[in-house]
Amino acid sequence: MTLRISSKYVDAILEQSRVEYPDECCGVILGPEGSDDPQVLKPMINAAHSPTFYEFDSKDLLALYREVDDNSQEIVVVYHSHTETEAYPSRTDIAYASEPNAHYVLVSTRKEIAPENEFRSYRIVDGIVTEEDVEIF
Predict the structure, then answer these.
(1) Residue 54: helix, strand or coil by DSSP?
(2) Calpha distance 102→93 (Å, rounded)
(3) Cα separation of 6 and 29, whole Å?
(4) What's the domain count of the chain?
(5) Are 37 and 31 in contact (CB under 8 A)?
(6) Would you put residue 72 in left (φ > 0), alpha (ψ -120 to 50) or beta?
(7) What is the pTM of this model?
(8) Pick from 35, 80, 111, 123: most CB atoms within 10 A?
(9) Could you tell me the CATH number of the domain that includes residue 61?
């Protein structure tokens, strides 16, 4: 699989990761049901306010799922940042991955690689992590 994503979304995710540093940033990108086409960026608040963990606020998550249902959309991308580690899913990330059709995007803002950030995408299904290519257009 390959994630095809607009550079405007990549730039927005990287900017959010810089603004929310040292905490992890998080969010989703929605698209039409069955399309695998990320079209609507939804930055979320990291309710954990943590540099090592993220979680969506339960009220925001409920509103998100209502929006998805009301508009015949699906979550195409789930993204978050790692502030001091590589852009690879942690054990916690893998355990909480609940969208089997989603691309799980991770960016790393660790200082060793600044100003270039890692931007990587994975599929996580039944605890199995598979990195995929990213095509930015």
Answers:
(1) coil
(2) 13
(3) 11
(4) 1
(5) yes
(6) left
(7) 0.94
(8) 80
(9) 3.40.140.10
Instruction: List the pLDDT tens digit at each of the 137 positions of the chain.
Output: 899 999 999 999 999 999 999 999 999 999 999 999 999 999 999 999 999 999 999 999 999 999 999 999 999 999 999 998 889 999 999 999 999 899 999 999 887 655 567 899 999 999 999 999 999 99
The domain in which residue 97 lies consists of 2-136
Angle at 22 between CA 100 and CA 98, to 5 degrees: 10
Sign of CA dihedral 117, 101, 89, 64: positive
Tokens, residue 102: 């989603």
- Asked if 76 and 33 touch (Cβ cutoff 8 Å), the reply is no
A 10 A CB-CB count for 127 gives: 9
